[in-house]
Amino acid sequence: MHRILVIDDEASIRELLKDFLESKGYEVAAASDGETGLALLKDEKFDLFLLDLMMPGISGMDVLREVASEKHEIPSIVITAHASIQTAVEAMKLGAFDYITKPFNLEDIHIAVKRALDFSKLQEENFRLKKELKRKFSTHRIIGNSAPIQNVIKFIEKIADTDSTVLITGESGTGKELVAKAIHYQSSRFRNPFVPLNCAAIPKDILESELFGHEKGAFTGAVNTRIGRFEMANNGTLFLDEIGELAPALQVKLLRVLQEKEFERVGGVKTIKVDVRIIAATNRDLEKAVADGAFREDLYYRLNVIPMHLPPLRKMKEDVPLLVEHFIAEVSKRKKKEPPKISPEALNSFVDYRWPGNVRELENLMERLIILKEGDIVTLKDLPERFSDNRPMPKALTGKQTLSAEGVDLNVVLDEIENNMIIQALEMSKGVKSKAASLLGLNRTTLIEKMKKKAIEFDAKRPD
Ligand SMILES: Nc1ncnc2c1ncn2[C@@H]1O[C@H](COP(=O)(O)OP(=O)(O)OP(=O)(O)O)[C@@H](O)[C@H]1O
Ligand SMILES: [Mg+2]
Known about the structure:
By secondary structure, the chain is an alpha/beta fold. It folds into 4 domains: about 5-130, Response regulator (Rossmann fold, 3-Layer(aba) Sandwich); about 135-310, P-loop containing nucleotide triphosphate hydrolases (Rossmann fold); about 315-385, Helicase, Ruva Protein, domain 3 (Orthogonal Bundle); about 405-455, Homeodomain-like (Arc Repressor Mutant, subunit A, Orthogonal Bundle). It has helices at about 10-25, 35-45, 60-70, 85-95, 105-135, 145-160, 175-185, 205-210, 230, 250-260, 285-290, 295-305, 320-335, 345-350, 360-370, 395-400, 410-430, 435-440, 445-455; strands spanning about 5, 25-30, 50, 75-80, 100, 165-170, 195-200, 235-240, 260-265, 270-275, 275-280, 305-310, 340, 375-380. Helix 2 (about 35-45) packs parallel to helix 3 (about 60-70), helix 10 packs across helix 12 (about 295-305) and helix 13 (about 320-335) packs across helix 15 (about 360-370). The longest helix is centred in the first third of the chain and has 31 residues, at about 105-135. The mean pLDDT is about 90. It binds adenosine-5'-triphosphate and magnesium ion. Adenosine-5'-triphosphate binds near residues 149 and 172.
């Protein structure tokens, strides 16, 4: 049952409201002045209070001020005989949810009470969901005991609650978005939006309006005014993914927003101010892009205030078993399947593998294994071919290689071996590249690239 407190110095009104609200099923307490009211609010738990503004001693406005300063977050409805827009506005500014003028109609009171209680329920729900998100994206979600990933976690905790711009770099699938969310949800902005925007996924000509919004009629097709991601992210965090793909014209515009914290919508004249924390991410080498003239140097420095580099999975080999276990458990639960066991050989091959797609590749593989598995144990033969590459080394390379006193050029030696193996594979497979690639444990495209680089020509023989 909801508890309501009525604070009014006039006994007849107190009685009237108490009787009425009790008849509607609320539990009601009453206070005859501001001081008693505040004491009750402090000591007992109420879901709402009704407050007269004009009272001797501590006025209604003082009560609101005190409640606001204590951050009770309890909704209130103000009742006043001296209705002026100004006092109402002032009361709302102090956190009152609604106001009603005397003489009032009891039905209006009932409606206002219901609205205020519904609203506060929504607010609580919203708060609960946000807390849930905070937990979900806390750094506990980032798995790994190895030094590189533990450093990342410590670093996130250190920098989350600053407003500084972060630039996250790392290969594809290393967890850049996961880290960006962890930063947001660990910061005091966590109740406000985390807005992602993938600069590479949105066509160039609409990216500007996506970022800054547009006014009605700004261009053909702009039938309505629309706010952009910067405005959506106000008081929160804007995650600019694949920032390295941003076109030069937009780089200039972004730089200005980072410097001035203001912008105009496309086709607009009004300057809009925002308070947004920026986290950018890229798997490109931005420093090189700057050197090549593809990325503005000034923008790079603006973004790179706090640089964060995420290690590739092959540098965190000791974490592979942990990640395997984590994703097996998580995906099995999600797909409502019994989690399979992994044979020691299969696990070893995971540890040895290079993981060019990093954690995402590992996650996807676990999902595939869980969906496709036949028995309850995953062995080497359940894995894609690239994991069971225990083909023998050529004889000439297995023993100890002798290095003569004058030394070698290692690159030349390796190149020679590579050429030799490629040509033999092509001969054996009669020039069928997919077959040759498979003999070498390569992708077909990798083989073709290598052949191009080495200018090896070998066409499949057409059947005569
Ligand atoms: N250390 C980690 N612990 C747990 N999950 C991780 C970790 N790193 C990455 N992941 C998971 O791997 C997947 C890929 O991560 P994410 O999308 O953040 O990568 P990314 O770096 O943004 O990749 P891309 O550059 O391809 O966009 C996600 O499902 C993410 O939750
Ligand atoms: Mg990403």
